[in-house]
Design a protein that fits this description.
Elements: E1 4-14, H1 16-39, E2 52-59, E3 62-65, H2 78-84, E4 87-90, E5 97-100, E6 104-110, H3 120-136, E7 142-145, E8 148-153, E9 162-172, E10 175-183, E11 203-204, H4 207-211, H5 217-232, E12 234-236
Parallel strand pairs: 1-2, 1-12, 3-4, 9-11
Antiparallel strand pairs: 2-6, 3-5, 6-10, 7-8, 8-9, 9-10
Helix pairs in contact: 3-5
Amino acid sequence: MDKQPVIFRDLGIVDYKTAWDYQETLLQENVAFKTAARKAAVTDPLSIATQHYFLLCQHTPVYTLGKSGSMDHVLLNEDQLKDKGIEFFKTNRGGDITFHGPQQIVGYPILDLEKIYTDIGKYLRNLEETVIMTLAEYEIHGERSAGETGVWIQPGIAGNERKICAIGVRCSRWITMHGFALNVNTDLDYFSNIIPCGIKDKKVTSMEKEMGYKINYEEVKEKLKKNFEKIFDVVFI
């Protein structure tokens, strides 16, 4: 079978709300195709006109809280956020609180999983694997942490656990949105204002911190794209 085509778009530096609205638009367009197909009694997912997208971007500084998150994990009040120039949004993705900002690669796959596989667990593991493979190209050993989504460094060594990539997704009618955030040269001080992902006593790290020098951001993006195509067996157009 031919590889599923995925429309790739690099949004550059964009505020969170703009990117969220764009994702919602793409998701709703795909849901509309599915609704029309159901009314026409079309049952083969591959014959429905849904389209896959993969969006990459950097956000201006923002904290986002997932639908299962707690406001107690935000350690700043509204005035303090405003003074620091950091936006805040409650979102409809899974997960808890996280930070997005410059020099962090945020990936938003808008995929119709009915054309790939209908397994959210496998989808999340494949997002993790895409990041793990990318980190390996820099000799950074990314791993999974039992019971926790995302990519970690030394998750099994108490006191050394540190998260390098957060993941939180939403799925509607098997259409995905939201995604992952990989810390490349991210300013980690922003994470001191929250309890990242609602997990106390665990640290956050970046590729820069692990390697001890600034990483070529554009190069990491290209490696992520290549590994995403490989893991999901798709082709970017």
